[in-house]
Structures are given as structure tokens and as C-alpha cells.
Amino acid sequence: MNRAVFLFNIYLSFLFCFTPILITIGFVLNLFPKLKAKFFASLQRLFEINSDNSLLESKRKKLFEPLKNLKSRDKNLRDEEAVRVLEFGIGHGSNLAYYPKNTRLIAIDVDPLVEEELLKNLKKCENVVLEKFIATSASDLSMLPFEFVDAVVCTHVFCCVDNQKLVAKEVKRVLVQGGKFYFLEHVGYRNKLYRFIQWLARPLWRLWFNNCRLGYRPKPILQSAGFADVSLDYFLCKEHHFLIRPNVAGIATKLV
Ligand SMILES: C[S@@+](CC[C@H](N)C(=O)[O-])C[C@H]1O[C@@H](n2cnc3c(N)ncnc32)[C@H](O)[C@@H]1O
């Protein structure tokens, strides 16, 4: 068992034993947004999704493979053999290495503090040029025009955005026609009993893991936003904690 999983188990035991105290602390933290942001940032770092996880990394690699064949809808970019990609919830940029060469990146994160580390990591990636970093929620991309980007990417973000339906609609709006949304997310179990356990843990989990929704299903949300074609590759990450073990690598296509 690696250190992160061990710590995670201790944390969960603590969580369920001291529920009333934790709920109170959670509500008090809500009264101090800056303190809350710092607290959750350090919590997230402690339980960071382990990038040594080979299954997850191979799924990530496979998911982004088709980006290599992407042709931009923007004539100027096409002439330069470049593509414009938007990634929201980019954090420190764990997907940068998987982008094709000549990627023009629009980086979105609700947390402005990630920019510094992201810029450091971008220096190591010659394949990516940052067009702009925008500190905003992906539920409001009104600063970007309609059909502006060739592809949209997010990994381990959709679970914790403020409004999943609005985010899905905004992603569809900024994507070019025929463009694809690539995502890698922890989701609900297919097994009904396990999904029920996720559902039981959901309220506390959401309070303590920065709005993260346990066991949700991305496909209906994307379909209701108008994505016609949503394909999912479901897999279990054995190294992850039981509650966030089921993951999907998915591609949603904007047809109209
Ligand atoms: C778990 S981290 C994932 C970071 C990175 N994508 C990765 O896979 O390592 C979630 C990130 O999403 C960002 N985030 C949360 N809600 C967001 C929203 N509504 N819009 C944009 N970013 C958001 C957080 O600030 C954080 O950087």
C-alpha cells in the first residue's frame, strides 16, 4: 500500500468517526474563503492522484493520442500546423507532455495560485505555447468566442466544478463543430451496491473534498448539453481508494 493510500485510509476513518465535529468545522471554514482555499489546496496535494499509476497513465496517453492527428479549423493555425486546445482545471499541467507539437493552449483554472507552477512546467514542454491563462470557472467562458477551440481537455476536474451542466454547455459552445472534448474522471461504480456506498459517502465527501461529487455519471450531463456522441472507456484504478476507484476516459463530440 503506498503512502497516499495509507494516509487516505486514516483520513477516511477519522472522517466517519468524527462526523459531527467535521461538519461543524466544514461550515466554519465556509465563513473564511481564503483559509478554506488554502486548507483544501494542501489536502489535495496530500492525496494527489498518483501519477506513477501506470494504468491511469496508459489510459491518459491513449486518450490524448488522437490529438496528434487533429487539424485546426482556423486557417492561420492550420497553415502553421498548429491546433488550439483549451484545458480547464489545468492545475500544474499534468497533461502538458501529452499534447501534440505546436499546441496553442488556453489554460483555465478557478484557482489563480496554480499559474506560477504551471508556467514553470510549461518551460519544460516545447510542444506547447500558452496563448493565455484565465483564472475563472469553466462554467463561465464568456470571454472566449463561439467555436474558438479545436479541442477541450479536462482530467479529474469535472467532479468538482461548481455547475456541471453549465460547464458542459460552455465546453460545447467554445468547441468548433466536429470538435471533441477529452476527459478522464473518477465516476460511479457499475456495481449497484458499490454505487450505493458511494452515494452514502457523497454528502460528507463533497463537503470535505472541495465540492467533489462521488459516483456521478458524466454521460447524461454531456448528452443533455447537446453532445451527440459520447464514448466512455470504464476502468478500475486498483491503487486508488475504493470510493474513487472507477474511472472513465471519455470523448464527447460536438456534431452540431
Ligand atoms: C484535482 S485538480 C486536477 C488538476 C489536473 N487537471 C490534474 O489532472 O492533475 C482540480 C483542479 O480543478 C480546478 N477547478 C475546480 N473547479 C473548477 C472550475 N469550476 N473551473 C475551472 N477549474 C476548476 C481546481 O482549482 C484544481 O486546480
UniProtKB/TrEMBL annotation:
Cross-referenced Pfam families? Methyltransf_11
Q: Would you say which domain of life the source belongs to?
A: Eukaryota
Q: Which UniProt keywords apply?
A: Membrane, Methyltransferase, Transferase, Transmembrane, Transmembrane helix
Q: Does the keyword Methyltransferase apply?
A: yes
TM spans (from-to): 6-32
Cross-referenced SUPFAM superfamilies: S-adenosyl-L-methionine-dependent methyltransferases
Q: Which PANTHER family match?
A: METHYLTRANSFERASE LIKE 7B, METHYLTRANSFERASE-LIKE PROTEIN 7A
Question: Single Gene Ontology BP term?
Answer: methylation
Key word Transmembrane helix present: yes
| Coiled-coil intervals, chain numbering | none
Q: What InterPro entries does the record tag this protein with?
A: Methyltransf_11, SAM-dependent_MTases_sf, Thiol_S-MT
Q: Which Gene3D superfamilies match?
A: Vaccinia Virus protein VP39
This entry's Gene Ontology molecular function terms read: S-adenosylmethionine-dependent methyltransferase activity
Could you tell me which residue ranges the Methyltransferase type domain spans?
86-183
The name on file for this protein is: Methyltransferase-like protein 7A
